[in-house]
Amino acid sequence: MLNTLPSKLPDVGSTIFTEMSALALECRAINLGQGFPDYPPPDALIRAVSEAMAQGHNQYAPMAGLLQLREAIASKVQSQHGHAYSVESEITVTAGATEALMSSLLALTHPGDEVLLIDPAYDLYAPSIRLAGAEAVRVPMRPPRKDDPAFRIDWNRVEAAMTPRTRMLVLNFPHNPTGLTLKPEDLDALEALIDRHPVLLLSDEAYEHIVFDGCAHLSPVSRPLLAEHTVLVSSFGKTFHATGWKTGYCCAPAHVTREIRKVHQFTVFSVSTPMQAGIARYLRESDTLSDLSGFYQKKRDRLATGLKETRLRPLHSEGTFFLLVDTAALGTGLEKELAVRLTREVGVASIPVSAFYADPARPEANHQLLRLCFAKLDATLDQALERLRGLN
Ligand SMILES: Cc1ncc(COP(=O)(O)O)c(C=O)c1O
Q: Of 49, 150, 226, 273, whose CA is between 20 and 30 Å from 348?
């Protein structure tokens, strides 16, 4: 009986992240593949959460999230993007960005709908779209070239992929894995596109507070027309070095939030109460959000500068805690083989960018690029660089 159980996700196995982490462990490699910090959340935040527990914040939170956290999110988003969300009807606290994305896709897409993804794309989107019964349509970014070593989005190509069945476009900026951020001209292009094709935008902004070189994070919700169509998703995990706390949120117009909450209430109902109380207090009392980009920019620069003494060429990262390296000097081959070789030969684990495409084995998915995570202690980064200098 069990042998004949039909799978809803027949081609989903363990992810490349699990695979590379297992290999890193086996080879005692430094793991720059896994996308999480090897340092703790701020002391004051840990204290705020512990005190919330001691003060009795231990029973179910309201389904939409603790009021004080929704208020803190509303004021944060308003000061960042100038858009006012209603605390009652437009903000929902979720179990990480993951649950916000899954609940949104399940609530807002239907069998027969198409959802546009821009490749390379974070690995959660396509299976979630499939579980919703919809179909992922993938539009590639233009890969880095010698004369312009960066990924670029061609909005004309995105528009050309739209059909009457297109329900949603998934955006993820700052972008994992390329580190791209949105510029004013991208928002202009999106406005023109939404004007012609009024689809929903699912905007995964998990790295919203990590943008470099003095740039601000531009969200689609900073433009009124786009805000009407957008589900803004974010995560406190990346912002507070607390990925294991799985606390995030989504903001969307009331009629959209109503549908998302219908799924949210039967998926998790509500999110860990002491985490919410602690985060709300921390957001009210501290001002560390503004320091985060500077903190990560130093790490990006440390890694990028050190890489110049290796055979790997760093690409520029505008945001997130990732940068890509060009491995062309190491010869050809699938990116996954290169990642395995790097782990085995010098003991540094990475993630092949091809893992962010529908079929990682296809030539279109392989650009000789690996993703390195610099959310690591300086000593960890230095040790990895030392090993990478020994690469032949
Ligand atoms: C682009 C992107 N979205 C969402 C997530 C998941 O966020 P969370 O841990 O809050 O569920 C991640 C985590 O790596 C991510 O990189």
A: 150
Q: 102, 170, 176, 272: which to mutate for ligand 1, most atoms within 8 A of CB? A: 176
Q: What is the dihedral of CA 280, 281, 285, 291, to 10 degrees?
A: -50
Indicate the top mutation candidate among 122, 250, 353 to test ligand 1's pocket, ranked by most ligand atoms within 8 A of CB. Answer: 122
Q: What is the pTM of this model?
A: 0.97
Sign of CA dihedral 126, 111, 162, 217: negative
Residue 99 confidence (pLDDT): 98
- Which residue owns the Cα nearest ligand 1 atom 10? 96
Strand partners, 201: 169, 230
Spatial separation of the C-alpha atoms in residues 71 and 62, rounded to whole Å: 14
CATH hierarchy code of domain 43-285: 3.40.640.10
Residue 2's pLDDT is what?
A: 63
Q: Which atom of ligand 1 is nearest to the CA of 248?
A: 10
- Which among 297, 94, 104 is positioned nearest to 215, based on CA atoms? 297
Give the DSSP H or E segment for 335: helix 335-346
Pick the CATH number of 2-41+289-389 from 2.40.50.100, 3.40.720.10, 2.40.110.10, 3.90.1150.10: 3.90.1150.10
